[in-house]
């Protein structure tokens, strides 16, 4: 998606450990117009799938997921992050290791927001090593519902997230694919 790539080129800052900072339009300040274009693009890419709900993880997945839900006219549920949980009877939970924060969080979704016939689309801001997506897939499996696809705003193709998802044969679409962040430079996949 050219609009998104242009924005990453203009405003993206490469941090140590292969982290791309895009907090001027996605991870802190949010550009609603750009996110609406992102949402419409996902709606187009997954138009042929029978999707009843969008799932994401708080907090940076919420903006692109809500815009996708708006474009698809479907509800959005975000998994909440907790350090630890004691009462989990009414929740689906999974452990997620955070690449950027280097900590493990539990993510959870209230059982009442997942219905038996749900067929979901996962949306997230970044795909790095695939831990956030794996956590959502654990919850989806536990809830015994279908996953129709995964939409990622920015994929770092040099990390192992895509391989994990392809192994499970789940359709994956990324709107910007970064091949390398070496020497502080953003190189997109050609
Ligand atoms: P994964 O679980 O795929 O390893 O990492 C995905 C999550 O980590 C994303 O939801 C995002 O919050 C965060 N993340 C991973 N890599 C980056 C990055 O380069 N920049 C930013 N801003 N967040 C990242």
Question: Explain this structure to me?
Answer:
- Helix 2 crosses helix 3 (62-72).
- The mean pLDDT is 96.
- The chain has 190 residues and is of the alpha/beta class.
- The chain is 29% helix and 33% strand.
- The chain has a single domain (2-188), classed as 3-Layer(aba) Sandwich (Rossmann fold), CATH 3.40.50.2020.
- An eight-stranded mixed β-sheet has the order 5-6-4-3-7-8-9-10, sandwiched between helices. The chain has a two-stranded antiparallel ribbon with strand order 1-2.
- The site of guanosine-5'-monophosphate has 20 residues, from strand 2, strand 7 and helix 4.
- Pathway: Purine metabolism; XMP biosynthesis via salvage pathway; XMP from xanthine: step 1/1.
- GO terms for molecular function: xanthine phosphoribosyltransferase activity.
- Keywords: Cytoplasm, Glycosyltransferase, Purine salvage, Transferase.
- Converts the preformed base xanthine, a product of nucleic acid breakdown, to xanthosine 5'-monophosphate (XMP), so it can be reused for RNA or DNA synthesis.
- Homodimer.
Share in helix? 25-40%
Uncertain segments: none
Shape: globular
Bound molecules: guanosine-5'-monophosphate
Distance between the termini: 12 Å
- Reading the helices and strands in chain order gives HEEHEHEEEEHEHEE
CATH topology, anyone? Answer: Rossmann fold
Mean pLDDT equals 96
CATH class assignment: Alpha Beta
Structural class: alpha/beta
The counted number of beta strands is 10
CATH architecture: 3-Layer(aba) Sandwich
Return Rg in Å: 16 Å
What is the overall number of helices?
A: 5
> Biggest sheet, in brief?
8 strands, mixed
> What topology, given as strand order, has the largest sheet?
5-6-4-3-7-8-9-10
The overall number of domains is 1
Binned strand content: 25-35%
């Amino acid at each position: 998606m050219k609009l998104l790539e242009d924005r990453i080129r203009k405003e993206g800052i490469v941090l140590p450990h292969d982290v791309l900072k895009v907090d001027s339009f996605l991870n802190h300040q949010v550009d609603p117009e750009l996110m609406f274009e992102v949402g419409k693009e996902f709606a187009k890419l997954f138009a042929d799938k029978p999707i009843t709900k969008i799932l994401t993880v708080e907090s940076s997945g919420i903006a692109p997921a809500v815009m996708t839900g708006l474009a698809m006219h479907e509800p959005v549920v975000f998994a909440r992050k907790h350090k630890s949980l004691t009462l989990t009877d009414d929740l689906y939970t999974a452990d997620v290791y955070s690449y950027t924060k280097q900590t493990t969080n539990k993510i959870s979704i209230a059982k009442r927001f997942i219905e038996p016939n749900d067929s979901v689309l996962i949306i997230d801001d970044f795909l790095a090593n695939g831990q956030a997506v794996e956590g959502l897939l654990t919850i989806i499996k536990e809830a015994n519902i279908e996953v129709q696809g995964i939409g990622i705003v920015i994929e770092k193709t040099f990390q192992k997230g895509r391989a994990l998802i392809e192994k499970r044969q789940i359709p994956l679409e990324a709107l910007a694919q970064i091949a390398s962040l070496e020497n502080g430079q953003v190189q997109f996949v050609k």
